[in-house]
């Protein structure tokens, strides 16, 4: 197999376009703490990316027999990647993710360890049980908490940042739970129940995340950063500009919430009307891409508009690369 074909096979195995949905977890977690993202946030993002890809490789290794029947074109059943190579990649990526988290402090390592354990438990045992969607939702919520605990640093301990980030983590987990429930039928189709439930979840989350909320660490808001990182910074003495900035900041969560709904609602509606495998897979893909505007809205509602916009900027790249490699 040529080098190009090998790279293509690994891109399919790891679902590389889905990587664009990962950094927003840590960024939303950092925003929830009220602290400016720093080098520890970057370590959390690196850890999240490694653990996410470990889960992708492990998923296909665990499902190789099932995929041989339902998805024979996938890299493992087609023989383009050997199963031992996929398992080795999963183990190496897990180790790398934990190593990066350890650099951000002990609280971050504790959360990353729980995340890694959840990922392996899901892929190796829980995926095909009723607990599967809840396990996946837990993993995504923990990923957001990893960003919060890493950003807060080792001196604060895990409790204060986790408490501040809990509402955002719960929102992301609820969306993940709904999308995972839909994905359980993506190869067979035939059920409108999960897409309808996911539509209801989307409507509820759109309403909840479309408002601004200030999130404290340890009971009070902590905002640190250079001028220009916060909406309205540097506009003292210019009430017209300051008012415009405040208006934009207040409107941003609602706009991003609508972007979230627009990304996921239409394909879910089509899958509910016709739960065929192609439309169900399209709904799952839309739900995965919708995590980016959801993460951005969560950051915006906790008073971090710049972080929200940086997160939202990942969406075009995710959409572009998803046309080349499937995210499901």
UniProtKB/TrEMBL annotation:
The transmembrane segments are: none
Q: Which domain of life is it from?
A: Bacteria
**Which Gene Ontology molecular-function terms are recorded?**
transferase activity, transferring alkyl or aryl (other than methyl) groups
- InterPro entries for this protein: Prenyltransferase_related (IPR050475), UbiA_prenyltransferase (IPR000537), UbiA_sf (IPR044878)
Q: Where would one find coiled-coil regions in this protein? A: none
Cell compartments where the protein resides: Membrane
> How is this protein annotated for GO cellular component?
membrane
Tell me which Pfam families the record gives. UbiA
Q: Which UniProt keywords apply?
A: Membrane, Transferase, Transmembrane, Transmembrane helix
Mode of membrane association: Multi-pass membrane protein
Respond yes or no to whether keyword Ubl conjugation is given for this record. Answer: no
Q: What is this protein called?
A: Prenyltransferase
The record lists the organism as Streptomyces venezuelae
User: What does the organism's lineage look like at the top?
Assistant: Bacteria, Bacillati, Actinomycetota, Actinomycetes, Kitasatosporales
